Amino acid sequence: MTTIAHSPHARAANSVSRIMATVMLALVPVTLFGFWLNGWPAVYLWTVSLAAALVGEAAALKFQRRAVKPALLDGSGVLTAWLLALSLPPWAPWWIAVVGSLFAVVIAKQVFGGLGQNVFNPAMAARVMLLISFPLEMTIWVPPMSQPGLLDSLAVTFGGGQLDAVSSASLLGHVKTEFSRGLGLEQALAGHYAPLEALWGRRSGSLGETSALLIFIGGVFLLARRTITWHAPVAMLAGVALPALLMNLVAPEHYADPVYHLLSGGVMLAAFFIVTDPVTSPNTALGQLLFGLGCGLLTYVIRTWGSYPEGVAFAVMLMNAATPLIDRNIKPRIYGRTRQGAPLMTRHAKKDAA
Amino acid sequence: MKLFKMRGGVHPEARKADSSERPIRILPLPPLLHVPLQQHIGAPAKPVVRVGDKVLAGQLVGVGQGHVSAPVHAPTSGTVVAIGDHPAPHPSGLSAATVTIAPDGEGRWFEYEVPADPFALAPDDIAARAGAAGIVGLGGAAFPSSVKLDASRQSGVDTLVINGGECEPYLTCDDRIMRERASEIVTGIRLIQHAVGATRALVGIEDNKPEALAAMRAAAAATDVQIRAVPAMYPMGWEKQMIHALLGREVPAEGRSADIGVLVHNVATAWAVQQAVCQGRPLVSRIVTVSGGAVVAPCNLEVPIGAPVQALFDVCGGFRTTPARLVLGGPMMGQQIARTSVPVVKGTSGVLALTQAEIGLTRPAPCIRCSTCVRACPVGLLPLEIAARVRSDDLAGAVALGLKDCIGCGSCSYVCPSGIPLVHFFNYAKGDLAAQARSKAKQETTRKLAAERSARIERIAREREEAAAARKAAKAAKEAAARAAATTEAAA
Ligand code: SF4
Ligand code: SF4
């Protein structure tokens, strides 16, 4: 006992790996649902994503001569790859997962200095990169419950060339296309959108984004475990829902209602699992509210007026970039001081001033 | 009754039941008592006894020096066997001036005069008696109580807050003293109230101590001392947190609670005031919680000041395993000690022998910016940002973010999932700041001395020059006069 340790001499039972494991646990229901809905190709894609992230991160750490084991065991790389996999088209070819995962853990994370140093959410950065670089592979969807056998599935994921056979459209993409053909919203949605199905998740879409309900359950679990706080998720959902409500009231034939927007695409997954990423979101409750609101608003704007059918990933990256600015300007008031940092007035000083 | 909502704070595992259910026991007198002359904030006391002197319990052995100081008394009757350095209860393990007494086992008291009606005493007389009894804040801060009483009376406080929060895990000494000595505490509270002229007295007790609350309520029933339950959370015992919970008032930064009309004392301090004023007993013992996973039978002991920590552990059955860490005080803010030979002092609320599992040591991981520390900080600081500044040696940046407002409560370190020793960084930086301030003061003095010196040299040189110039001028004038005279002569 030669070194003298500083207080406190106790520590909460908590660790980075425990946080990551809790988030992964919350993702299990929606992931299993995705596997069931999309069959073996989804399982392969998920596995390839995680494996690529582990190998890529280990190599990057080795290259920097940093300890590999603690960094891999903290689980952050696996979680990133998991989230990325959930946002991919379930029948995407294997190399999409590999390129995406490597980009996420090596470029978007390790190049910035590793865990805690990255500015952008790695999963979202990888998703944006893939969307821009491989628009075709990233927007091919399969009808729900098309479940090929084990071997056929291998051909889907690793064989290539199966894409044409199964092309379908995600709802957001479909509506956008129909709009561009001059059709109204009601016609565009006819036979494609049923709110209840969207809630439960039996529809085309990314591997883990179709079941709003299961994502919500995972999110509530994280809230109950205090792994995340409500601020950013609620603000993001409000940021999508409020403008949607407004536009829908103004011109219902052109603008979909808020429920449609909340239940489509990556909004739910992002609200509970992406904008709550500690590293790339602000540090204060108010900052997180602003951040979530910004993510929601930008998502709506990009979806509605931008050239991409889905805007979640872009919106999150834009707000990631704004996070240092938010953190610099929004700080809690220090006890005994005004917001500006001056000491509060004493009773006597107040009396003197009066 | 309205309670005000607090921000921040954590809920560490309380571990209080280990020691709270056993009555206070008296520690048997150890063979030697090492009574340090400085057990308080301020100047050390000056010894007034000599080696070989016989002393009685409560007899003065050291007088306070200067404005902020406190006297020290013999904890029991016996002989002074040494006056010199002994390891102090401090993490550094350094030695400090100490009076060592060998008890004679008779426990004879020095008789002080006791007033027939203590409430008939003049207010400043009560403060003087508390001061003469060597009473300091027993919550851990060990600030001389009479100084606080005098200052409060002068600036005028309306409310006396008595802190029965005891929010540190493991510690139950205040809990036990409230359960067992409630009526003495209430008398002490009323005496303090009388001493400072406060119009009301509130006692805040965490709601995880129902027995203490009941005992205090019963004892205070016939008085106007008000007992209030406050939510159990750390750091409720931080006096500003307690003031906020009870009154909703906020102490200005860089100020004291007296600035908003409040005086705060700990429950055990109130007990000590009662003992001093009503019984004529100076502060020579205190209740200490002995606990921790490595201790066989944790409990609370009434301990004479100066008893070695080892004696406390021995009475509690010794260690069940080798402790991983020994701590004076609570686990959140207490200090690690290197050995058990150090003495118990007035500010020692607990001695803990903790196991590795309780400390929960891990190797620090990178900060994941999870802001758990931000939510935990009761002051409203951004611990992660301050730590980042300290790490990159940007002391000014750390100060701008409120480093000096940090109370070192440890809430942030406690909750950090990455196990980052945030408080360690802050203490280190505060140490640097203090060193900077000292060297700046020293530089100032040096600069001033140097400036004075060069001014003096300059002055002397100038005077010399002036004198020389004056002489030269005089000489020139004389020569000119002589020349003029010569010319006149020649002309004549
Ligand atoms: S709690 Fe620890 S890991 Fe989280 S932000 Fe604070 S310092 Fe960083
Ligand atoms: S130690 Fe300082 S920074 Fe940490 S929680 Fe306490 S007051 Fe806040």
Count of all domains of chain A: 2
CATH topology of the domain at 17-21 and 116-304 in chain B: Rossmann fold
CATH architecture of the domain at 17-21 and 116-304 in chain B: 3-Layer(aba) Sandwich
Task: Supply Rg of chain A.
Answer: 23 Å
Number of helices of chain B: 15
Gyration radius from CA atoms of chain B, angstroms: 30 Å
Mean pLDDT metric of chain A: 87
Low-confidence stretches of chain B: none
Overall 3D shape of chain B: globular
Please give the share of residues in helix of chain A: 55-70%
What percentage of the residues of chain B does DSSP assign to strands (E)?
A: 15-25%
Structural class of chain A: mainly alpha
Taking strands numbered 1, 2, ... along the chain, how are they ordered across the largest sheet of chain B?
Answer: 1-14-13-17-15-16
β-sheet strand percentage of chain A: under 5%
Set out the fold topology.
The complex is a heterodimer of chains A (354) and B (492).
Chain A lengths: L15 H23 L1 H24 L4 H6 L2 H11 L7 H17 L11 H12 L16 H10 L11 H10 L4 H5 L5 H6 L11 H13 L6 H20 L7 H6 L3 H8 L10 H21 L6 H18 L17 H7 L1
Helix pairs in contact in A: 1-2, 1-4, 1-11, 2-4, 2-5, 2-7, 4-5, 4-6, 5-6, 6-16, 11-14, 12-14, 12-15, 15-16
Chain B lengths: L16 H4 L4 E2 L6 E4 L9 E2 L6 E2 L4 E4 L8 E2 L4 E10 L7 E9 L19 H10 L12 H11 L3 E6 L8 H8 L1 H15 L3 E7 L3 H11 L4 E6 L8 H9 L14 E5 H13 L5 E7 L7 E6 L4 H7 L9 E4 L6 E3 L12 E5 L1 H4 L12 H5 L6 H9 L3 H6 L10 H5 L6 H70 L1
Parallel strand pairs in B: 1-14, 9-10, 9-12, 10-11, 13-17
Antiparallel strand pairs in B: 2-8, 3-5, 4-7, 5-6, 7-8, 13-14, 15-16, 15-17
The structure holds iron/sulfur cluster (2 copies).
